[in-house]
Amino acid sequence: MNILIVGAGIVGFNLAQELSHEGHDISIIDADAGTIQRISEKLDVLAIHGNGCLPSVLIQSRIRDAEMVIAVTDKDEINLMVCFLAHKFEVKERFARLRNMELTGKSQVFKPEELFVNHAINPASIIIDSILKIIKTPGAVNVAEFADGQIFFRGFDVPEDAPLAGKTIEEIRELSELNAFLVVAIVRAGKMIIPKYENRIQAGDKIYILVDHDFLPLVLPMLNKKVNEIQKIIIFGASRVGINLAQELDKFIDDVSIIEPSLEMANEAADILEHTTVLHGSGTDPHLFNDINMKDADLFLSLSSDDEINILSALMAKKHGAKRAVVITSDPDYMPILDSIGMDVAINPRLITVAEILKHLRKGQIVNLYKLSEGEAEVMEIVPTEKSAAIGKRINQLNMPEQSIIGAVLRNDGEMVVPGGSTEILKGDTVIIVTLPDSIGKIEKIFGKKNSFLS
Amino acid sequence: MNLKAIFNVVGILLILLSGILLVPLAVSLFYADPALPLGHRTPVTAFLDSCISSGVTGFLLWKFLPSGIEKLREREGFVIVGVAWIIITFFGALPFYLTGACPEFVDAYFEAMSGFTTTGASILTNIDALPHGILFWRNLMQWLGGMGIIILSLAIFPALGIGSFQLFKAEIPGGATVERMKPRLAETAKVLWKTYLVLTLAEIILLKAGGMGLFDAVCHTFSTVATGGFSPHQASIGHFNNLYFETIIMLFMFLGGMNFALHYNLILGNFKVVFQNPEFRFYVTMIVTAVAVTTLGLAYATGDSLEHAFRRAAFNVVSINTTTGYATDDFHLWPDYLRILMVSIMMVGGCSGSTSGSFKAIRVIILFKVIFCELQKLIHPRAVVRIKVGQKPLPPNYVMNVVALSGLFLGLTGVGFIALAFMGVDLTTALSASIACLFNIGPGLGQVGPAADYSQLPQAGKWILVLWMLMGRLEIFGILLLFLPMTWKK
Q1: Which residues of A make CB contacts under 8 Å with B?
Q2: The CATH fold of domain A150-223
Q3: Which strands sit side by side in the sheet containing A416-417, from one edge to the other?
Q4: Domain spans of chain A?
Q5: pLDDT tens digits for A48-69?
Q6: Cα A381 to Cα A144: distance, rounded to the nearest angstrom
């Protein structure tokens, strides 16, 4: 498929890399000559320097052949303009990143479709969703949902006193009479392991599980003995995400505060927010932290637009007693070090946007996809086609690649099966697979032809 | 420097070369080529041995070294192309050496390098007497080298396409000026080779229709569209003394010197793009002017009829300007100012993205603009001037690259000239041989003029010219890089 990407920032670059790898023909436009130069040397794509709002530049970038346009410049206005022009060029699929909540949120005046955008992606609302999910799953550091919310994907840190620590996967399976969840990945010292029966979970690991949504409350105590209800949340940064999140939190958390260094923005936040306490001050000020009793905070969220200050502020907050810290960084290069300096959850809006767009792109046979930052593993939700070789076979007959695991099978009637070697794949099943990227091709082969949308 | 990955790619290219060597082998079998007096082997066994040795070496390199082309860095791309050309030329030279067509290995290597770089300089003295297989192989090498053997492999093995922009850029004539026509390099390489094939077939059919024998038609076509200049006849195109052949060959030399992206646009029907292309306009203007001046000059100097002078002028000017090097006339015998004119247009060459060698029209345009800009700055010291070709402003580092490259072309011409003169070659021959090889034309003046060949030069001089041809084809920087200690550091 011919795809035109406008905007070669982190999102544009990652999309171009990913999609070109998957066999699509990519053109990419950016207004910065240096960026374009770097891209044309790194990726096998057509990189054009110019203004994506100009029809001549779009024509040069082969928009007439394009079946999909993805507008991911850092300006909503430009993205809207690109989609409008793409509509005039009769491009069927038009994606745009729109950051302004008024264009995508609840208070929207126009639907994205009315603005010639088929799929509007708002990273802020995705981030808010995932933070809310994390808050509702105490202990979780990574969250996603599969099979229309039937199956939860959750990541946890394993503390010293966790009942699971020191047990092998086999022992855990025997122990959990409910048989309601499966450990699908272990991250140890920054390396991702797809576990086999004999692998042992150690304290300090991060584990990922797939679990039926009804059983999640029963599973939590096995992972962490004392799971405290979250009562006090402190947010740093009255950014768009900060304010909107605070509005949501107000509904079910008693004590929410928000710290903002800019008086102007603090005033604006105070105008919008009703229950939340708005504080004007620095995110690295120990006196302020003392004043607001940081030591009682259950959760500290660094949501400002400055990566470095976010990280510093979260470090300070943890030092002052905040139990857990969530950090947003827009630079993906920071992700690998955040875990080692004690950040509990790291969120990257850019990677989230990439994953969201890829999810839309791969709909069809691969229904859902979630990217993990470590080792760049992927969680795929697949509905095997009728012709697939997998139908009617047991899992141990499938010859699955080494670096992958079938984590859950959802039957037609909505029952989740925790798969073992003898589980049979039936017609109409939904299969959730965790895999390292090298094995994606093999998995696609096993579960049916590569879907036509991709080729 | 990721040497293992580099040789892995070279291995793939050698396997490709071994497959290609089957073609001259078949030709040799078909014509039942006899063995030459000085030969180690008959032509058939010589091709078979070359084919097997190249195939086995390639297979071993490819099989036992890890690939890693996706992770190659910029300089490694240049090194791959440079090393690959040196090694491929070695295997390409084997048939010449083994059959005894060139009893000295330096001569065989010279001939093969001249073939692959589409220079067309020959050390063979009695071409008509050589076996068909050898003659065919000489011209096939030019055809392969014209569009580039690495670009061919990109079109055939798309898996190489990831991370191979460096390779593409390092091999295509005109380097970074060449625009890709398709988002994917493999697709771009395919379009280039398909266009090239179409041109080739068209010329073969036209020459055959005019009554040329199939073997001559194929051989001449190969070296025409590649702007190479090897002919299976000692007297080159003059052998036929046929106006129709000259016209067809002239037309295809002209097309070969055009940017292949323009051919693609012609096929798509975008005539406007072609005629508005500044480089193409410069190319046409240059040829028309040079033909006019030469026609008048020849008519005046030799008392030739205007019509006959035009025929001689047009063919030889197009041949020299596109860096082909075919001759219907010995321009060494022309008046001095016309000889200088021929040498000057040699040093401009055809368009970027064409099969022609030399400095390329686009770079000459840029140089003129740089000079003009400098003048403008003298008049308005605070003027902000951007160098543009057509509507497109050029990035300053690219302009610098062109200026540096022109310095290198001139500097190396001088070095080659002095080195050859030092070995006792006369001045006209030394200067023109240095130019004709560095700019990939072929025939020069004096001892290496259109009617003579390179066989009389000293051995060391031949090695220098081999290097000069390679540098000219890969536009110098890529080969100079191989001599830089920094390149090989970890």
Answers
A1: 2, 20-21, 25-27, 33, 37, 40-42, 44-46, 62
A2: Alpha-Beta Plaits (3.30.70)
A3: A366-371, A378-382, A430-435, A404-410, A416-417
A4: 2-121, 150-223, 232-351, 357-446
A5: 989 999 999 999 888 998 999 9
A6: 12
What pLDDT, in 10s, does the model give residues B106-145? 999 999 999 999 998 889 888 888 899 999 999 999 999 9
- Least CB–CB distance from A46: residue in B161, B163, B180: B180
pTM confidence score: 0.76
Phi-psi region of A344 (alpha: psi -120 to 50; beta: other; left: phi over 0): alpha
Residues 6+ apart with CB under 8 A from B310: B291, B295
CATH class of A232-351: alpha beta
**C-beta separation of B223 from B119 below 8 A:** no
Phi first, then psi, for residue A209 (nearest 5°) are: -125, 155
From A100's Cα to the closest Cα of chain B, the distance in A is 32
A86, A19 Cβ separation under 8 angstroms: no
Q: What is the CATH number of domain A2-121?
A: 3.40.50.720
A191 forms bridges with which residues in the sheet?
A: A188
Band of the pLDDT at B395, cuts 50, 70, 90? confident
* Cβ pair A102, A218 in contact under 8 A: no
The C-alpha atoms of residue A208 and residue A226 are separated, in whole angstroms, by 19
- Give the Cα-Cα-Cα angle B466, B254, B206 (nearest 5 degrees): 105
Percentage of chain A exceeding pLDDT 90 = 21
Q: Which candidate in A20, A28, A46, A54 is best for mutational testing of the B interface (most B CBs within 10 A)?
A: A46
Q: Kindly report which listed range (A108-122, B55-69, B149-163, B223-237) carries the lowest average pLDDT score.
A: B149-163
Q: Are A2-121 and A232-351 equal in CATH topology? A: yes
Check residue A225 and give its pLDDT. 54
Residue A177: predicted pLDDT: 59
> Under an 8 A CB cutoff, do B165 and A40 touch?
yes
